[in-house]
Design a protein that fits this description.
The protein is of the alpha+beta class. Helix content is 45%, strand content 15%.
């Protein structure tokens, strides 16, 4: 027997890809036995049943976030239809002989062989290593220095982006205000930025080591230099990512560097010991396998890559020189196996660019051929062990094959039929014009504040002639614009365009007032509003107004949206029509009432 030419380098380096003759039986009717049947169907005179245990098993195999969604009887009944539709798609694909497609068969072969080699390595490596607690403890003793916990500090920190505001806060602390109490107040007002800006625990920096935050190193060093309980005497200034922060902080705790105990790091040690043993066992096993197989690599027959050029299809290709049939590697496994220069060229030239660069010189090519030959040898050993008959591998290959069949039949039934013309898009737009109608919109400059007294002071400044946008920028820099209209720090005060419906559920009175103004007009007084039990005070001026309009299909943004919507609707329609035909052909019957709660 001759091992096929492709390697399985994906597992060791780029993946193990090898070709092997392979055939899978697809349509085997399930046996209902005495178990609960939740669905039945027929295809080409064969009766099929879906058992309750089949349904539950399929749900259990789903990712946790999906399986949790199918706990109720109703939701499991919905999944039953989805599960059944997948089976019908597979049978439809087989009836059209898609299971004999060369590309699909090649893909399944490659997958099967990757799993065979992986399983062989599990058997020869993973399942043959062991270690004791004494070994783990010995590793810990020999590598204690790797398990030292760094010194850590903890602080209460107020970080602001306004120097003036930081000076005011520092003065309050000097006059007796508690720094933690102030941190809570500033967080509630949305003023904290940077270390200590934790909404659930304002001011708390949590424990950190001196090397944890390189960009904040000046601040970190300053905290470590303080005594426990000591606070900064002046506002501390630091620039990080082009933003200047003004900080007041107090050192609350210090934990010196210490040796972590064995119990603390046991899991990490176990992983390291296991990895080492696996690498050692793999090398030992592969060395013995190569020796038993009389493994030979003929490095002197390799071409000089640096001298090859000309007709190569892309940069770095190995070009031919008339010696393609020359044997580059040999080993014994079910007869003498040979790897020729032609096979090396085919595989090497098919590698992605980043991989070819790794093996760009002669020594790299030698490494590649060693891996190529070893992967061939492992595949041969896996075949000798009949790993392809392992029940788990058989099921995994079957599942993989079914997934590929569904992809191919979906391409035929949906993707290739999803051809829409200009007339189709225009017809869709005319039928769904209302979906693209744009209601009237308004844009404001708005200051949203929490304190009525403060809002009145700001309103007075605007009345006296100060620029509203400049005030918005100032308040934003000081963190005094609360969450609400106009609070975006990138465009302070600017609400962007919004419709009346944007606030209809939470602040309809605000929207009514905004639309009632003339462009350039400001509210006559501070506008109070309550949202979900919280009181806010707004000052706003109407900047722009856009009338309601029906956009034309020629507008680029609308064209893209209409095309996407039309294609999505067409895909849904094609899918529903296809599944309806399959269900009718299969005479499907479902029994969702048999699914227990």
């Amino acid at each position: 027997m001759k091992i096929p030419s492709n390697t399985l380098l994906e597992f060791l380096t780029l993946g193990f890809i090898v070709y092997q003759s392979f055939w899978l039986t697809y349509a085997v009717a399930d046996s209902p036995d005495s178990q609960v049947v939740v669905a039945q169907y027929e295809w080409e005179d064969v009766q099929y049943h879906i058992l309750l245990e089949d349904l539950e098993s399929s749900i259990d195999k789903l990712p946790r976030n999906r399986s949790d969604d199918f706990k109720s009887r109703e939701r499991r009944g919905e999944y039953l239809q989805e599960f059944l539709d997948e089976k019908l798609k597979i049978l439809d694909a087989i009836s059209r002989n898609l299971d004999t497609d060369a590309t699909l068969l090649k893909s399944v072969e490659e997958y099967q062989q990757r799993r065979m080699v992986q399983r062989l390595i599990e058997m020869e490596v993973d399942e043959k290593i062991s270690y004791t607690d004494l070994e783990l403890e010995a590793y810990y003793a020999a590598h204690k220095e790797d398990y030292r916990a760094k010194a850590e500090s903890h602080a209460t920190c107020i970080s602001l982006t306004s120097n003036r505001r930081a000076q005011e806060v520092l003065d309050e602390i000097i006059n007796g205000r508690d720094i933690e109490e102030l941190a809570v107040e500033l967080s509630r007002n949305g003023e904290l930025r940077g270390p200590g800006d934790i909404e659930s625990d304002p001011g708390n920096t949590r424990l950190f080591a001196q090397t944890d935050y390189p960009r904040w190193r000046k601040f970190v060093d300053a905290v470590f230099a303080l005594e426990i309980g000591e606070m900064t005497r002046d506002v501390f200034e630091i620039e990080v990512s082009n933003v200047t922060y003004f900080m007041i902080f107090r050192k609350d705790a210090y934990i010196p560097e210490r040796q972590m105990s064995y119990d603390e790091v046991r899991d990490e040690i176990e992983q390291r010991v296991e990895d080492r043993k696996k690498r050692s066992r793999f090398a030992q096993w592969m060395s013995a396998a190569r020796e038993n197989a009389r493994f030979d690599i003929y490095s002197d027959r390799l071409p000089d890559l640096s001298a090859l050029s000309g007709s190569a299809s892309k940069e770095g290709d190995i070009d031919g020189d008339g010696t393609d049939t020359l044997s580059i590697a040999e080993f014994e496994c079910d007869g003498r196996q040979f790897i020729t220069l032609a096979e090396v060229k085919d595989e090497f030239n098919g590698l992605p660019d980043f991989a070819r660069k790794k093996y760009k010189d002669k020594s790299g090519l030698e490494e590649y051929i060693n891996l190529m030959a070893e992967s061939r040898l492992m595949l041969c050993l896996a075949k000798e062990r009949k790993i392809d008959e392992d029940a788990r591998i058989v099921q995994e290959v079957k599942d993989y094959q079914h997934d590929r069949l569904i992809e191919k039949i979906t391409e035929l039934e949906i993707d290739q039929k999803l051809q829409l013309t200009e007339d189709d898009y225009r017809r869709f737009y005319e039928q769904h014009k209302a979906d693209y109608f744009q209601p009237e919109k308004v844009r404001l400059i708005c200051l949203t504040l929490r304190s009525e007294e403060f809002a009145e002071r700001v309103f007075q400044r605007i009345r006296e002639g100060e620029d509203m946008i400049e005030i918005a920028t100032e308040l934003s820099d000081r963190g005094e614009l609360t969450v609400g209209p106009g609070s975006n720090p990138k465009k302070p005060g600017d609400t962007g365009f919004f419709t009346h419906a944007s606030y209809v559920e939470r602040a309809e009175a605000f929207a009514d007032a905004a639309f009632a103004l003339e462009v350039g007009e400001m509210v006559k007084e501070v506008f109070p509003i309550e949202v979900e039990g919280e009181q806010f005070y707004l000052i706003f001026r109407k900047e722009e107004y856009r009338e309601a309009r029906q956009p034309e299909l020629e507008e680029d943004w609308l064209r893209s949206r209409v095309e996407n919507d039309a294609e999505r609707r067409k895909r849904q329609s094609l899918t529903e029509e296809w599944l309806t035909r399959l269900r009718e052909r299969a005479n499907v019957k479902t029994f969702p009432d048999r699914i227990p709660e």
